[in-house]
Amino acid sequence: MWRYCFCLPLLLFDIGVAKASDSSASIFLPSQTGVDGSRSPVCSSPDPNLNYRPVIGILSHPGDGASGRLTNDTSSTYIAASYVKFAEAGGARVIPLIYNEPERLLFQKLELVNGVIFTGGWAKKYQYFDIVKKIFNVLFGFVLPGTFSVYNTIPIFFMLLHRKLWREMMLESIFQYMAFASDSSLCQLSLVRDILERFDAEDNASSLQFVENVNIQGTLFQRFPPELLKKLSTDCLVMQKHKYGITPANFRGNPALSSFFEIITTCVDENSKTYVSTVKAKRYPITGFQWHPEKNAFEWGSSQIPHSEDAIQVTQHAASYLVSEARKSKNRPESKKVLSNLIYNYKPTYCGYAGRGYDEVYLFTQPRARF
Ligand SMILES: *[C@@H]1O[C@H](CO)[C@@H](O)[C@H](O)[C@H]1NC(C)=O
After folding, report:
1. Using one digit for the tens of pLDDT, what is the confidence trace for 320-363?
2. Closest C-alpha residue for ligand 1 atom 10
3. Is 292 part of the annotated catalytic residue set?
4. pLDDT, tens digit, 9 for 90 and up, residues 52-81
5. Residue 341 burial (CB count, 10 A)
6. Which domain holds residue 357?
7. Which one of 2, 9, 260, 346 has the minimum C-beta count within 10 Å?
8. 253 CB less than 6 Å from ligand 1?
9. Could you tell me if the CB of 71 is within 6 A of ligand 1?
10. Is residue 4 part of a domain?
């Protein structure tokens, strides 16, 4: 055992030495390398405009994430650990935003983050959506275009971020958003019946079809290698887990959605019906998914989740994109406050024995806020 412990640093050291001697084999003048001689020729200086210690807030979801196998406590909320690992894989740390803790606390935590993930799930509680709405108001209160990254596994909720909508926020649009964001659970709301449709995509991998003439610069896919982009549209590299969606025609026919978002990809369900699967806000770093970029690398509960090397790369590139957007955030909170709120203060619970659902969840069983 000890041998391995000592070996690893030595190996790294060896590689360092080998590299150093390689570079000393050919010596260039600074003018020949194009590198500013006043700085180290090896390490580029950090870009002062970027935040290299980004923190992603993830909003918890009602329940235990395991259909009562872990707890039936009605105040319990959870975050599937795969979303946390996803943010970590991109090079960020995570602060859980526990949706039912006192709002004062929740919004203090929101001031510590550089990006937000709204996870998938099957929330039914009004309180959850009320908090989502409030978080949106806060984000849009201090967010400048291009400085904040807001993600979701499901698209439509971003319609709230339409500037006009935001100003004249109507209950109706909030309900439309909520319904789509929670997939099946809220579709009964009559307000959304007309834009949502049933799709057969509950537990299967699919390809992603890029919309004709779409410009992927500035989107999630901008840094995907060309080979992988090609495979995305021919191979089943993304995981689907939802019952409801929106057709491209209905999406484009909805002025609130189509003026705010551009459709980047569509998917075809098990009955060859097409639904919108990735959207990007036209003027903001907001991406919506109707597929699960986090599952390929971090969830094992369904045999349908693709785990090929290509599929894992999809997770990794998506994570890099999220965090690269978060690095542009100007928010530089006090480091002590960040530390005491990080997800590292909590332990995930393994619930993969059931052979379905999430493998690990972070459970938060705090008492509800008292007002
Ligand atoms: C939650 O309730 C269900 C249904 O009554 C029960 O089967 C399950 O064991 C309970 N979970 C826990 C953790 O007690």
Report:
1. 988 888 888 878 888 999 999 999 999 999 999 999 999 999 99
2. 68
3. yes
4. 999 999 989 889 999 999 999 999 999 999
5. 22
6. 55-364
7. 2
8. no
9. yes
10. no
